[in-house]
Structure prediction request, 233 residues.
Amino acid sequence: MYTGRGNAVTALDGVSLQAHAGEFVAVQGPSGCGKTTLLLAAGGLLAPTSGRVVVNGRDPYSLSPEDRARFRAETIGFVFQQFHLVPYLSVEENIRVPSMALPAGNARARARSLMDRFQLSQRARHVPAELSTGERQRVALARALMNNPRVLLADEPTGNLDAENAGIVLAHLAEFAQEGGTALLVTHDARAAQYACRTIHLRSGRIVPQPEAGQAALIRDAAGEADARPSAR
Ligand SMILES: Nc1ncnc2c1ncn2[C@@H]1O[C@H](COP(=O)(O)OP(=O)(O)OP(=O)(O)O)[C@@H](O)[C@H]1O
Ligand SMILES: [Mg+2]
Prediction:
């Protein structure tokens, strides 16, 4: 619940969500339904008024602020909806920021390989103001991956990308999960469902069960597989 200047807002209401290692979960829903709030709470950045958050076996809100910051640096990569890049640092320096919270040996090499992967090498010395929006988005994703997190929380990371770059980012999230990470992706991108293991739908702070759609897809897949097998032999 947000209690600020205006009316108190219950942004999340009875949401229960588990995502396992190796899972890529997409979260969809209309503007204002609580998607960013869900990611912030899961990421150790916003303590829920009630309920519990457990990441990698620990409740980040039970830790002191210093321990929580360290836990976040070690465990969680976060791609913010508004990027939050440091304006006076270069692309390479921005990507390396999370490694400053941890004793890291190969930060330089890791940052270089991430720039390579996201086609940012030609922009290594540029500051964010000198980048396109899509490039900024890719810097934010590279930064989130810098410390090899266990959990990747990404808020609309393809919102400003063309189809090709959006596909690259979605494929990277899927690969991250295939390698044993947990990816939680907030997106309006319909293609995300093709890459994600499952999609959660939020409405007014609540998870909307989608039994019909989910089961229909399962039944169709099962039927498809059954049909495909005999002809494949
Ligand atoms: N700091 C805040 N104080 C008060 N209310 C807030 C605050 N942040 C968000 N809210 C409210 O909480 C609700 C959920 O916000 P949230 O940012 O999680 O939505 P969202 O699903 O991410 O939307 P969008 O798709 O537009 O990014 C909204 O009604 C919003 O107005
Ligand atoms: Mg949001």
Summary: Residues 24-174+204-228 form a domain with the Rossmann fold fold (CATH 3.40.50.300). Confidence is low (pLDDT under 50) at residues 214-233.
